[in-house]
Amino acid sequence: MINNNTKKYIFSRGIDDYFTGVHKAYKFTSLFFKEVIKKPFHIREVINQCFEIGIRALPLITLTGFIVGIVFTKQSRPSLEDFGATSWLPSLIGIAIVRALGPLVTALICAGKVGSSIGAELGSMKVTEQIDAMEVSAINPFKYLVVTRVLATSITIPILALYCSCVGLFGSYINVHTEETSSIISFYQDAFSTISFLDIFTGVVKSIAYGLTIGLVGCYKGYNATQGTRGVGKAANQAVVLSMFLIFIEEVIIVQVSNWIRYF
Questions:
Q1: With contact defined as beta carbons under 8 Å apart, do 202 and 254 qualify?
Q2: Rounded CA separation 232/215 (Å)
Q3: Rounded CA gap, 127 and 205, in Å?
Q4: pLDDT in tens, 172-213
Q5: Segments making up each domain of the chain, as ranges
Q6: How far is CA 188 from CA 17, 115, 168, 182, 254, in A?
């Protein structure tokens, strides 16, 4: 049976571990922003990581974006038909996908696909002492492994988010065309008629923030993995869970800020 002293010790130990983790994450993030502006820049490795991330996530993003466009259109149509406003459907879909669904769906897919891969890859290198070997051979492992991957996610995810939005709009057009036989030109004209520069800018900013978060969390969990192969799986799992949690928080904050700007 656990007595009160043991409960107090467990509670205080949990608080200490939490704030220690926050401090380590802060130092890790600060080190990234310091190293990202220092030479060498490893441009070739950044390009290679962008290619790997894009190829790894592209098929799933294509399928998911297309399905999201079709399903959201089918779900929205009955509500608009009740008010006789089915002509507003392209505008509604355009706003929903460009403002929210495109960047968010892309970020969640990449958090599960790319974030876990980064966490597992760096975790594997950590527990097999490959990172220590890089330090011995006069290579900055943080610069080569972490900075390049975070830059790659920050660059690639906004591109994938724009691609996902285009695919989602095309899926929506397929559904609208089967119901109303409308032309693709008129559909896209109606869809983009209500989308402002602020909507596109907000979507790009959100995607960059999501990419930075996925890269930093995945690299942090993998770079600090322990406990052998068990720690590798734990790092990959924690990278996905924490990335998704932070993405939803960022979504709320950025949407609130963009609404304030829009009202002003």
A1: yes
A2: 16
A3: 35
A4: 888 888 877 778 888 888 888 888 888 888 889 999 999 999
A5: 1-35, 44-263
A6: 52, 33, 12, 11, 26
